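Proteins fold reproducibly. Consider a sample protein:
=====
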Amino acid sequence: MNQGPLPLSDPGLEQVLLDGLAEIESRLDVAVSRTRVLGDAPSRHLLSAGGKRMRPALALLTAQLGTGTSEEVLEAAVGVELTHLASLYHDDVMDSATTRRGAPSAHQVWGNSVAILAGDLLFARASQTVAGLGATAVKIQAETFERLCVGQLQETIGPQDGEDPVEHHLEVLAGKTGSLIAAAAHFGALFGGLTGERLRAVVAYGERVGVAFQLADDVLDLASSAEVLGKIPGTDLREGVPTMPVLLLRRAGSDADDSGIDDEGRAILAALDGDLHSDEALAAVVARLAAHPVMEQAREMARGSSRDAVAALDVIESSPAKDALREFADLVVERLA
C-alpha cells in the first residue's frame, strides 16, 4: 500500500501515525474479507489497489490533539475508510470510469450490478464498525452518509435555474469530499477527548481541507500527466463532469456583454462543446485550457480553502499535531506548484 506522504517534522508523531496506519490496514483487510465467497474479490478490489489512506491518517492525527490513538480512534478510522472505498465503487459506475488507482474499475471487471453491490457491502461493513462506537458515532456516520448522497444527487441533477454553477460545484465538493474528510477529523478529535469549540474547529478544518483537496484535483486533472493521474488527462472533460476551471470559464463567457472572456476562452468553450471522443482532440483542448488564466483562478480557490482550514485551528493550542495539520493543509495545495 502507498501510505502517501506524511508531512510530519516530528519523528515521534510520525511513528505514531505509521504504527496506527499499519494497524488500520490490517483491520481493513479483515473487514473486506468477511463476506461470502462471491463477494470477496469484488469487495477487496479497490483495497488491493492501494491508496494514500488520507482519511485514516487524518483521524489518527486529530486524535493527537488530545489523548492520542485509542481503540475507538482505530475503529472509527476503519469505518471512515470503508465508507470512502464504498463510495468509489458507486462513483465509478455513475461516471462510467474505466480505471481507478491505475487498475480497471470494478464495474469493468464484474459489471455494474456487482460493483454496486460490492459498494453496498462495504457501506454495511462501515456501519457495523461504527455501530460499536456508540450513538454519537452512529449519528456522525449517518449524517455523513446523507451528505455524500446529497452531494452526488446535486452533481447528477446539476444546478437549478438561477443557481450559480460555481457555487453549486463548491456545495457538491463539500458534500462528496469535504463531509467524509470532516468526519475523519471529527472521529479522531472526538475519541481523542476534544469537546466544544475545539472539536467544532477540527471538524471545520476537515471540511475545508476536503474542498481544497478536490479543487486541487480539478486542476490536476488538466495539468498532470497520465502517469501521475492513472488516467488520461482531461477525462472529466470528455465525460462532462463539471470541474472548477471549466465552470469559471463558462461563467466568464455567460456575461451579458461577453466582456468577461477572451478570444482564446471562447475558442476553448467551442472545443469543449464539440467532439472530444478522439484522444487527439481531448489532448488539444486540455493543453489550451491548462494554459488559460482560469487555471490560476482555480488554483487560488484551492489555496484559499486551505488557508481557511488552517485559520479554523486558531482556537487549538500549539502542539506538534497542530503543526502537522497545518503542514497537511499546505501539502494539499503544494501539488499545484
